[in-house]
Amino acid sequence: MTTNYHAQRVANELEEPVREANELARKLGLEPYPVNYWIVDNDEMNQLIAYDGFQERYPHWRWGMKFDRQRKQNQYVGGKAFELVNNDDPSNAFLQESNSLADQKAVITHVEAHADFFANNRWFGLFTGDAPGSSPKAAAMLARHAKTVESAIADTDVERSEVERWIDNVLCIDDVIDQHSVFARQRTIESEHDHEDIETALEGLGLSEAVRREVFDEEWLERQREDGSTQSFPETPDPDLLAFLREHGKQYDDEAERAREMEPWQREVLDALRTESYYFAPQRITKVMNEGWAAYWESMMMGEEGFADASEFIDYADHQARVLGSPGLNPYKLGKELWEYIENTENRREVIDKLLRVDGVTWRNFHDAVDLDRVRELLEPRDALIRISSDRLDELGALGSAVDHEALSSARTGEIDVDRYPWKVLTYEGLAERHYSLVKPQNRGLLPQITQTDLERIGRYVLDDAVYRSVEEAIADVDRTAGWRRMAEIRANHNDVTFIDEFLTQEFVDRHDYFTYEYAHATGDYRATSTDATDVKKKLLLQFTNFGKPTIEVHDGNFANRNELLLGHRYNGVALDIEQAKQTLSRVFELWGRPVNLMTIHKEVSEKDLEVARRRSREPEPTERGIRIRYDGMEFETSELDDDQTAAIEADDIDYDTKPDEWLA
């Protein structure tokens, strides 16, 4: 990237922070991909953001549009790119040379946590198949895809505009994939019969258009369709529309006004873009988890471990405030708060579990039998772990497994600057005790707030209830790493939907003041509607299921025995924008080559119902009806769905709550 003098100076300045951040991350239990750090200027950063964090992408107009939007955001809105890292092995992270040292350090610590998430979350493993030693090799893959598109453009028989239009068609539906399945580059969809339509067969005979119209008129063709098999395919709704189109789609020939086979370059481009959709899917479905994970460990390293020194801390605090304080649904803030809640609740469960094993303590008498102020004092980290310095090293020798004794020896000989990097002489266990969450000021009320219901739930599994003779003995046996180990398990197995569904509780909602709001048709504005965790969770899940976009599935590739495509919108209470749906259908038509249909459920509110609702100061009840929209390349038709078709696209309770058990590891 940039090779100017200033960039080189910045690179030299960051060599130590990069090295030390990686070591600290590993001390804290993270296992990140190796990261290559690049110093870039403002224009280079804007280009990389436009290219989704990569240096080479296929030629297309949208990259220029994204670049221009990012540049204008920087100029006129005051936007600033703090972090940019890609999922690859090694990962590549880009640091803007104009950032302050505090900002650079914050990005580096943030990036190390992202690289850990990329390497260890099972949803990222779906792209590589989770085979031993497998990794994305994304930069090389995207470079190959760029060459695929460039080759199509270079073909003298193909217009550049034709290639770009084909890409536009695919990008309109690039999220209609099976995001919960292991990626397979090629897929063969079995069917009971040959679905080649009669028109295509006639094309192979080489007949003139005059003969075709004279002998094989539309009436004859219609009879052949009716006499053919009525077997539909696929057997069950298929969520991977891109794969279905790759296997069974055609292109629409405007001149001949009929479908014909895709050109090889068209299938290659479709295949490349589908591959990229699967590659980027994990980043979309783990946005809250991933950003929250990175924000949590960044805060731990920069703030609590002093990676930002005294002269940098104010700048860092401002950086963190801007990231966590941005308006709207903020994945950094929501994710970090959920990770902290998980850490606290697991640590609390571990402490309560030990206390319920003290002779004479039960879940019924817990609050009367246990002095929780005394418990908090006992949970405080040992003083020698807090006040580590070069003149107090002798105090560490007796702390057992909390201390890295090899590093301690190096510190005694001056090989380690323990005053600047005290964490170097500690182990994972020692760092867990040093940063134990329940003794932090903001969390000190969590133990007294434990409810009788939670005590009973934990006590139900305590069979050996007289293990410890005293509270002191029980607390001495508390595992200080319980919270971090639980976080690592969750990081490995969950995505945003399962993460929010399982861990967003009423206690969390109350503690962080979350609520739902709705648009009120009666008053024409927004109003708060609920602080119930079930409502908050459902509202959030609807924004994260399928990237927050409508779930569309292939229901039939031979609809009405006419080789028409029938798609179904899995309706979960949120209606489609019909005009947008029509625009997308017109794009799908280009990839199918024959008429396309979409089943959905439409909500309607009559003016009369709206007026009545206004007078009564309540919301009108919309009428729902199933409809099918058909596009034949010329015009749209809308018809009613029968009851069976409507039932086929209505999500059941499990779908609506978005918590299918098979998503969990």
UniProtKB/TrEMBL annotation:
Residues 656-665 have a biased composition (Basic and acidic residues). Pfam families: SpoVR (PF04293), SpoVR_C (PF24755). Residues 550-602 form the SpoVR-like C-terminal domain. Residues 12-349, 477-547 form the SpoVR protein-like N-terminal domain. Residues 640-665 are annotated as: Disordered. Residues 640-655 have a biased composition (Acidic residues). PANTHER family: STAGE V SPORULATION PROTEIN R (PTHR30029). This is SpoVR family protein.
